[in-house]
Amino acid sequence: MKRFFTKQKAEDKRSFFLEDELLDYILSHSASADEVQEALIEETAELGWVSRMQISVDQGNLLTMLVKAIRPKFAVEIGTFTGFSAISIARGLPENGSLLCCDISEKWTAIARTYWERAGLNDKIKLVLAPAIETLDNLPEDTEIDFAFIDADKGNYKNYYDAVLSRLSDHGMIVIDNVLWSGRVIDESANDDDTHAIKDFNSYIRNDDRVTCTMLSIGDGVTLIQKK
Fold it and tell me: Which of 4, 200, 206, 208 sits at a 20 to 30 Å CA gap from 159?
């Protein structure tokens, strides 16, 4: 699940732990969305409650900056929705870089395709509509992933992570969204499946001796992961 939009009411923003004024200050002192991004944000908002699945502008900025630093030849996104995060990743890619987007919704990714074209990124992005594990399994055996963003169904986070890690290059990075889950990860009364899945996943990563990780409080929480 993702979040969006510098113009939302403060209580709708995914940095739920910040005072409204401080969150507004942070957003007003970060790079803002351009015309294409703003148009995508507005069209996504018209979808209603589900629009919360879109990442925020500041999260998008972080993705672009990480990708620019890593300079991946091959990036993967698991969970594309209407395409804001894909734009953020693709804009950071080097000239020879490409992004594979994995999703199962033709309806939502049709919006994404429109805005990728408007952003001039069609040649950077390939979308595959199929279960992400299937898409990853079908990659050539020698394919290395240099950057991955995982933001899809929470019950499969561990499966997605393990599938990506098995192909992650030595300098690669995995970014996981929603690791704070609106604070429910520390709510002992939260018994829903998604909360349990996120809590179990966070513990799994912390105890995985193959990697080093750090959890950031941007948006709804993101974890950055690299091989040791």
Answer: 4
pLDDT tens for 38-67 read: 999 999 999 999 999 999 999 999 999 999
Whole-angstrom distance, CA of residue 180 vs CA of residue 199: 9
Integer Cα distance of 99 and 73 in angstroms: 8
The stretch 198-224 carries a mean pLDDT of 97
Say which DSSP state 157 is in: H
Residue by residue, DSSP assigns 100-162 as EEEES-HHHHHHHHHHHHHTT-TTTEEEEES-HHHHHHTS-TT--EEEEEE-S-GGGHHHHHH
Angle (CA) 43-85-223 rounded to 5° is 135
Tokens of 178: 């929603």
Eight-state DSSP code of residue 219: T
Separation CA 170–CA 175 (nearest Å): 15
Say if residue 4's pLDDT is above 90. no
Q: Residue 102 pairs with which residues in a beta bridge?
A: 78, 128
Domains of the chain: residue spans and CATH: 10-227 (3.40.50.150)
- Residue-averaged pLDDT of the chain: 93
Residue with tokens 């499969």: 156
Q: Which helix (H) or strand (E) holds 12?
A: none
Closest CA to 116 of 157, 82, 147: 82
Q: What is the pLDDT of residue 14?
A: 64
Residue 182: CB atoms within 10 A of its CB come to 17
Please report the pLDDT score of residue 173 as a whole number: 98
pLDDT above 70 covers what percent of the chain? 94
